[in-house]
UniProtKB/TrEMBL annotation:
This is Mannose-6-phosphate isomerase. It comes from the Bacteria. The gene is manA. PANTHER family: FRUCTOKINASE, TRANSCRIPTIONAL REPRESSOR MPRA. InterPro entries: Carb_Metab_Reg_Kinase/Isom (IPR051804), Man6P_Isoase-1 (IPR001250), Man6P_isomerase_Firm_short (IPR014628), MPI_cupin_dom (IPR049071), PMI_typeI_cat (IPR046457), RmlC-like_jellyroll (IPR014710), RmlC_Cupin_sf (IPR011051). The lineage of its organism: Bacteria, Bacillati, Bacillota, Bacilli, Bacillales.
Length: 323
């Protein structure tokens, strides 16, 4: 079927903390002044990308997953396993936590919990995130919340462009104002808010908090996950390994010139953060521009890249059916 990259149309989500930075960075035509999320590669029921090219043009990634599993090496599962987003935190996000698969299935009747990771694309000077907390016990955690002692409870970390954070389910977290990230996550939209700074929406209403569920799923005490970034010159490009864990593997590719032939391990999710490149497959050339998001399907055995650009590349680590 496909011997070319599957190009996807970005899908935008309005958020109380969003802005217009994604238009400045990638030239996207934003539907409002409060766009917080670009769902870049998604097969989720709450938003799936339209396919722009090839035999399935005009259909969606969700439909492709359901009807053409050969594009994804016969990987099993009712739902597309991963979701790639770009987030523009014009204001700080709520302090939140996500459940694991077991809790999501038992309490929310959903297939996936939410483990995620962040590559920081851009951060204003002095920008911070919330990553973890200082409570040693559930009792202390609950008491700090009830007393509104957020500065004592929450753990703040300074961030800059190029930083990477692995955020397993159960991790208390929040992206701070002035930060843009690319997020790779499980295909889940379950979020439990712990604290939202007493903000109100356009109707003057405070957003719902989920304190009991948050306490049930939060890791107490917090432990920083162990990650190791490694760099190598491979296939004619700088290739940085960011994470490989139960659900996904993520890398940063830095292309300058022409790469050697890259063997496709299964299917790959790619987002071009900077530059312009050409993907070459089977003698055909496919241009990719800054801000494009695409999939190299399993029907492509190998490909090369040419040009100058930075990409975040991920793939699912779920089991394959072998079909």
């Amino acid at each position: 079927m496909y011997k070319e990259p599957i190009m996807l149309a970005p899908l935008f989500k309005e958020r109380i903390w969003g802005g217009t930075k994604l238009k400045d960075m990638y030239g996207y035509a934003l539907p409002s002044e409060k766009i917080g999320e670009c769902w870049a590669i998604s097969g989720h029921e709450n938003g799936t990308n339209e396919i722009r090219n090839g035999p399935l043009a005009g259909t969606t990634l969700k439909q492709a997953w359901e009807d053409h599993r050969e594009l994804f090496a016969g990987e099993e599962g009712e739902e597309f396993p991963l979701l790639t987003k770009i987030l523009d935190a014009n204001d700080k996000l709520s302090v939140q936590v996500h459940p694991d698969d077991t809790y999501a299935e038992e309490k929310e009747n959903k297939t996936y919990g939410k483990t995620e990771c962040w590559y920081v694309i851009d951060a204003e000077e002095g920008a911070q995130i919330v990553f973890g907390h200082h409570a040693d016990t559930e009792e202390e955690f609950r008491q700090r919340i009830e007393n509104g002692e957020w500065e004592k409870l929450l753990r703040y970390v300074n961030v800059q462009a190029g930083d990477f954070f692995y955020v397993p389910s159960g991790t208390i977290h929040a992206i701070g104002a002035g930060v843009r990230i690319l997020e790779t996550q499980q295909n889940s939209d379950i979020t439990y808010r712990v604290y939202d700074y007493d903000r109100t929406d356009g109707n003057g209403e405070k957003r719902e908090l989920h304190l009991e569920k948050s306490i049930e799923v939060a890791k107490i005490p917090h432990e920083d996950p162990v990650t190791e970034r490694t760099e190598s010159i491979e296939k004619g490009m700088k290739r940085e390994h960011l994470i490989s864990e139960q659900y996904f593997s993520v890398e940063h590719w830095d292309v300058h010139g022409s790469t050697e032939e890259i063997v496709n391990p299964s299917y790959l999710l790619l987002s071009l953060l900077e530059g312009d490149i050409v993907v070459r497959t089977g003698g055909e050339s496919h241009p990719v521009r800054k801000g494009d998001h695409f999939i190299i399907p399993a029907t492509i055995d190998s490909f090369t890249l040419e040009g100058t650009g930075e990409l975040i590349v991920s793939h699912s680590n779920k089991e394959k059916s072998g079909g």
